[in-house]
Amino acid sequence: xxxxxxxxxxxxxxxxxxxxxxxxxxPDGLGKPIRSPEGxxxxxxxxxxxxxxxxxxxxxxxxxxxxxxxxNIPGGISADIKTPPAKDKYLVLYCHGGIKSPAAGDKxxxxxxxxxxxxxxxxxxxxxxxxxxx
Length: 134
Hints:
Helices cover 30% and strands 15% of the residues. It is an alpha/beta fold.
């Protein structure tokens, strides 16, 4: 490979890597069956206490409607909420369109959470949404 081709390859590499890694640290393939809306709804219906559904959108977006049982941790910064989930819980994160939740997942991993799955965006949720009681 000549020098010019090598330099071009080095310059192209940053554009070929994703902006943020898709975070999936759930053990034993637990993330695979809940990647679809039907799988996530099944998980919610089972009420498995090991899992926490996390909406990383703003409080206003969360209040407008969220996936049932989800808690709101804007931007994935758990230090800003009163009762953050335990660090050993399995977190399933989503945002609006699936763009911001990977970065939020990275923040939560850096904060010491060990099991994080980036689910995607609520735009892919075809089922009823919850709103906070008033």
